[in-house]
Amino acid sequence: LSAVPLDASAINVQLLDSLGAPIAATPSVLGSAYTFAALPDATYSARVSYTDAAGNASAFTTAALSLTPDTIAPVAAAPADLVLASTKLGTNSSDITVSLSAIPADASAINVQLLDSLGAPIAATPSVLGSAYTFAALPDATYSARVSYTDAAGNASAFTTAALPITPDTIAPAAAAPANLVLASTKLGTNSSDISVSLSAIPADASAINLQLLDSLGAPIAATPSVLGSAYTFAALPDATYSARVSYTDAAGNASAFTTAALPITPDTIAPAAAAPANVVLASTKLGTNSSDITVSLSAVPLDASAINVQLLDSLGAPIAATPSVLGSAYTFAALPDATYSARVSYTDAAGNASAFTTAALPITPDTIAPAAAAPANLVLASTKLGTNSSDLTVTLSAIPADASAINVQLLDSLGAPIAVTPSVLGSAYTFAALPDATYSARVSYTDAAGNASAFTTAALSLTPDTIAPAAAAPANIVLASTKL
User: Fold this and answer.
1) Closest CA to 38 of 69, 14, 61, 7
2) Phi/psi of residue 37, each to 5°?
3) Angle at Cα 94 formed by Cα 91 and Cα 97, nearest 5°?
4) Residue 241: how many CB atoms within 10 A of its CB?
5) Do 195 and 151 contact (CB within 8 A), yes or no?
6) How far apart are CA 336 and CA 319, in angstroms?
7) How many Cα atoms occupy the beta-carbon half-sphere of 46 within 13 Å?
């Protein structure tokens, strides 16, 4: 209703059949729109009456208005509006997608049918994503498609005037060129290797890659490679000559032929050069009378060395059983018996090939030279009287050799024998406490870092405790006074 009287409190809208009689249907009302639902196709008319607030009803409209439902179907889709594509799933099946590039504005329903080679609709129901209708996992065959549209009034168009043929993609990608495979071997040890095959060019339409490593007879080996990007690695293979080939599979499931020629791979078996003797620097640290630490330092290591074998040899040239501790390029063999040793080194590269040992073993002789004995003048002796019958005696060292790692200070009795007392030490002062009054002497010996001890001072220094009493006081030094309490 485009106009309603201001005093209308009720409205009676009637729909009339072709004979002018009101139909029994009750309309739904939304604002000024009255909808009679799901009527059979026919010609109808309508009339309206208003009732005012006092309950007075107007006459119906003087002439009923004619209404004819929409029975015109939309135009059939043009064949060009269907875009067809096939995705090959495997040897014997495909997904087929029908995409609609143009849909009539008044289309409320779409019926896409896939037809077999005889033109009959297949029973499969497509999945729908936007304007793409996909029929899944169909047997390999040639199909065609057609579409019909239904408008809002329920009128269905004819199907497309010509069905469009679809043939699945069965063309395989081109075989890879041998130059697209880059092969490398990493030697793991004497009898095994890792072999990596890298692909330098992959076809744009490749959805799967089948890379095979072949034995010396050209048969594929059973190992499965690990894959990192375009590198396929076959791990820990026995030493042998291998070859490789590759095949690509496209999105439609078609596999290419393998590379026309397999490429040979031979593991790296070339050892690094032996170390020059000058690259091995040897040193000995004397630990005591009968043992030493011996350190072998390497001043130059080949860039391709992945492992280093340093051996210490006995006087007969046989490797000793000791395992060195390693800190950077220093290899230390600890607490060895005093002897003359030699050392040699071998390098192993990343492929597991070991070099020869150094061409000449280098001799090492432990340091057995003791430091010089201390001069008597380097000992300063002093006595502190503790009471009538005892003293503290302190021996102070005024000069200590630079290579001294241990100091042995002894206090001797009047017969020149070392006493059993252990001194307390403060810096370079060694104090023997609460000794009985007597005459003593002292001597010292130094031990160097290699464990060699010097002789004692050539002459012991005499030390006599202070036993002289002060002079008696003069009588004049005593002042007396009395206070009477």
Assistant:
1) 69
2) -100, 145
3) 160
4) 12
5) no
6) 13
7) 13
Please measure the distance between the N-terminal and C-terminal CA atoms of the chain and give it in whole angstroms.
Answer: 143
Query: Could you give the C-alpha distances from 293 to 267, 314, 319, 324, in angstroms and in order?
Result: 41, 14, 16, 10
Query: Within 13 A of 185's CA, how many CA atoms are on the CB side?
Result: 27
Tallying the residues shown for the chain, one arrives at 485
CA distance 195 to 213: 9
- Is the distance from CB of 152 to CB of 164 less than 8 angstroms? no
What's residue 163's pLDDT?
A: 54
Degrees (nearest 5) of the Cα angle 160, 132, 93? 95
Three-state DSSP state, 164 = strand
Q: What is the CA radius of gyration of the chain?
A: 56
Tokens of 484: 């009477």
Q: Which residue has the higher pLDDT, 42 or 417?
A: 417
Cβ 208 vs Cβ 199: under 8 Å: no
In angstroms, the CA 253 to CA 269 distance is: 41
User: Higher pLDDT residue, 193 or 196?
Assistant: 196
More reliable by pLDDT, 429 or 290: 429
State CA 45 to chain mean position distance. 79
Backbone dihedral angles phi then psi of residue 142, each to the nearest 5 degrees: -100, 125
Helices (H) and strands (E) in the chain, counts: 0, 33
Which residue has tokens 């439902």?
69
Q: Name beta bridge partners: 342.
A: 313, 363
CA 74/CA 102 separation, integer angstroms = 13
